[in-house]
Design a protein that fits this description.
The structure is a single chain. With 395 residues, this protein is an alpha+beta fold. The protein has twelve helices and ten strands. The chain folds into two domains: 180 residues, no CATH class; 128 residues, no CATH class. Helices cover 55% and strands 17% of the residues.
Length: 395
């Protein structure tokens, strides 16, 4: 049989069994759809992780009081920051922050937001970028000034050009502050404080007007480079031991690189878990193809006998059933991919980030074809092995 005759035989059988073929294809459609969406969600999760950490240097270290079961009343102070700056050679910049919540008012607009009190080097350590004005610096110490995050600025100064906001006065917890800067949109939340949805003021001013004694300072230290992170952690640990003795274990040191790696690992693990679910769906779809082909072999036994009687070879019969399985799985995967393109904007509407990838499309298509070929081969081989006399006499 020629290749054209093989294809003609396949399409005739598919046309005559449309409902059965469609139901069989559903498993492949759902499997391919799931694979594409899983890969897209995985990519979206990884992008979100990268955005959350993009403003952090991987050499950034956080020194803080322990929390959870090890929670302590010990609090870090400016003296600790100065000791780390002077006694830790593996660190090039050190800063400190405290944070709380405050009500901020401009004219008749009011909002409650997170506020951070920071030391001057905070901007460099955290890669903060200023859209208008300037950030907290040495000249700001003790001054009632604020730098406002982009999202808060949009709420407070709605309808006003943000470049004109610098120099305006806002009310924070009943006190008048001057706006000295507006941040660029960062799109990430660093260690519980999101600069886009908060604002900054000098450390001592925040301690006086916002946090009072209810503060849990965090020291941020930037290692000279990524190779000095481990040595910086060891040196900071020695400084804490000198200052606090046996109580130094009530503080903990975390590095941004480990947090980033952990977040990436979590996103990858979730992607693999979802991908395994998609694989199971496709395997079930492949089993459906195999069952349909077995039924098809039974129903077409006499046809197979006639084809062999008029000269069809074993290879021709094998290709008829095998190509039918491949075509069903191929069409199913294409339909699944098309449906995923429709589904992704809907997912974005429900705030589930999905970024389509060519690898996801190719994986869905290739895996579907592989499943169709694998599960289609056995019934195709069984059909090809039928003896003409047995097939013609089959009732």
């Amino acid at each position: 049989m020629s290749f054209g005759e093989i294809l003609r035989s396949i399409f005739i059988n598919i046309r005559e069994n449309k409902s059965k073929v469609f139901l069989t294809t559903l498993g492949i459609i759902v499997g391919a759809l799931t694979i594409v969406l899983v890969m897209a969600i995985g990519k979206g999760s990884q992008e979100q992780v990268e955005e959350q950490f993009k403003r952090l240097n991987v050499g950034t270290l956080y020194v803080m009081s322990a929390f959870g079961r090890q929670r302590t009343n010990l609090k870090l102070g400016l003296e600790d920051m100065e000791a780390i700056s002077e006694e830790v050679p593996s660190v090039k910049e050190v800063s400190m922050m405290i944070n709380g919540n405050a009500n901020i008012v401009y004219q008749d607009i009011s909002t409650t937001s997170s506020v951070a009190g920071v030391i001057k080097d905070y901007k460099e350590i955290n890669n903060i970028e200023i859209e208008y004005g300037k950030f907290i610096d040495e000249d700001s110490d003790g001054e009632k000034v604020v730098v406002i995050g982009s999202e808060v600025a949009k709420v407070l100064f709605e309808g006003i050009e943000l470049s004109q906001v610098v120099g305006e006065k806002v009310i924070v917890n009943g006190k008048r502050f001057e706006v000295i800067g507006i941040l660029k949109y960062l799109g990430g939340s660093g260690r519980g404080f999101n600069p886009d949805e908060g604002f900054f003021m000098p450390y001592e001013v925040a301690q006086r007007y916002i946090t009072g004694r209810n503060l849990r300072p965090i020291i941020m230290a930037l290692a000279k480079d990524i190779n000095h992170v481990d040595s910086a952690i060891e040196e900071i640990t020695v400084v804490l031991q000198k200052r606090y003795g046996s109580k130094s274990d009530q503080f903990m040191i975390r590095d941004a690189g480990s947090s980033l790696q952990s977040a990436r690992s979590s996103a990858s693990t979730m992607t693999l878990m979802l991908l395994s679910v998609a694989t199971v769906v496709l395997i079930v779809g492949g089993i459906g193809i195999m069952n349909v082909l077995f039924v098809s072999v039974k129903e077409r036994t006499k046809e197979i006998g006639i084809l062999k009687a008029i000269g069809a070879r074993k290879r021709d019969i094998l290709l008829i059933f095998l190509f039918e399985a491949i075509i069903i799985s191929g069409v199913g995967s294409i339909l699944g991919i098309i449906m995923s393109m429709v589904a992704m904007p809907i997912m974005e509407y429900f705030q589930v980030r999905a970024i389509p990838t060519m690898f996801g499309y190719l994986l869905a298509f290739g895996f579907s074809l592989a499943i169709g070929t694998f599960f289609g081969y056995y019934p195709a081989s069984k059909a090809a092995s039928l003896k003409p006399i047995d097939a013609l006499n089959y009732e």
